[in-house]
Amino acid sequence: MFTLTPLPYAPEALEPAISARTLEFHHGKHLATYVKNLNAAIEGTPLADLSLEEIIVKAVEGGLTAVFNNAGQVLNHNMYFEQFAPEVGQKTAVSAKVSALKSALEAAFGSIESFKSQFAAAGAGVFGSGWVWLQADSENRLSIAKYSGADNPVAHGLRPILTFDVWEHAYYLDYQNRRPDYLATLWQIVNWELVASRL
Question: Taking Cα atoms as reference points, which of 79, 46, 86, 78 lies closest to residue 64?
Answer without folding.
Answer: 46
